[in-house]
Design brief:
single chain, 121 residues, Rossmann fold, 3-stranded parallel beta sheet, 5 helices
């Protein structure tokens, strides 16, 4: 659902989809995305673990999405793990849900902004 909504924007190309953290790490080197949108809750390797490896091996801006929306707790966790380049937004739950369009617009704005950041290796 997120990929479909992002791909509808003319200035955003969805270049890959991974269904778990390990798959994301494997695909990053060949895809070389400008930004990664990643759920915190992933099978096999959670978003925090995946992000740590990605930032070490292939520094790429990462936008976390989270359905367990306690932004302060997530930001504290990111700071404790020394993730200086990441942002977090509330994960849009579904097109029929109350705040979907606001949440999707926030996600799209963050994708556009973070995709402009180039990280040094």
């Amino acid at each position: 659902m997120l990929a479909r909504n992002l791909a509808q924007k003319e200035d955003i190309d969805v270049v890959g989809i991974a269904f778990n953290g390990l798959e994301a790490i494997k695909n990053i080197e060949k895809i070389k995305p400008d930004i990664i949108v990643m759920d915190i809750d992933l099978p096999m390797m959670n978003g925090f673990q995946s992000a740590k490896r990605i930032m070490r091996e292939h520094p790429t801006p990462i936008l976390f999405v989270s359905s367990t929306w306690d932004v302060r707790a997530v930001k504290v966790a990111l700071q404790r793990m020394d993730y200086r380049t990441l942002a977090v937004v509330e994960k849009p739950m579904g097109e029929g849900e109350g705040n979907f369009f606001k949440q999707m617009n926030d996600l799209i704005s963050h994708v556009r902004l973070l995709s402009q950041i180039k990280l040094a290796i």
